[in-house]
């Protein structure tokens, strides 16, 4: 029993490390604002087109930043969920026929 818990904890740490190395992207207004984040939802980079920045007002900039950030976070959540599901299926495979109970 403790072996399975330890194995699950190790698997979770492996997933976290893998997600740290996966980049996801979000952009707004055709790429004038670009956001790079990890699949662990850590923002790594924000790029704003200088021409847009010179001409944008504060409210427009804030709205587009929110759009780009949310797009990146949605992608991060999707990648994270996919990784978790794959891991859960791998672990359930170790329980023999019980793993098929959740696939039906």
From TrEMBL:
Signal peptide: none annotated. This is Nucleoid-associated protein HMPREF0766_11603. The keyword Iron-sulfur does not apply. Its main location: cytoplasm. The keyword Ribosomal protein does not apply. GO terms for molecular function: DNA binding. PANTHER family: NUCLEOID-ASSOCIATED PROTEIN YBAB. Binds to DNA and alters its conformation. May be involved in regulation of gene expression, nucleoid organization and DNA protection. It is found in: Cytoplasm, Nucleoid. Keywords: Cytoplasm, DNA-binding. One of its GO terms (cellular component) is cytosol. InterPro entries: YbaB-like_sf, YbaB/EbfC. Belongs to the YbaB/EbfC family.
């Amino acid at each position: 029993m403790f072996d399975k818990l330890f194995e699950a904890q190790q698997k979770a740490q492996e997933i976290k490390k893998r997600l740290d190395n996966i980049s996801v992207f979000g952009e707004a207004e055709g790429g004038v604002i670009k956001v790079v984040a990890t699949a662990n939802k850590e923002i790594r980079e924000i790029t704003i087109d200088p021409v847009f920045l010179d001409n944008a007002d504060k409210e427009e900039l804030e709205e587009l930043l929110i759009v780009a950030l949310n797009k990146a976070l949605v992608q991060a959540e999707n990648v994270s969920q996919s990784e978790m599901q794959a891991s859960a299926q791998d672990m359930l495979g170790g329980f023999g026929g019980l793993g098929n109970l959740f696939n039906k």
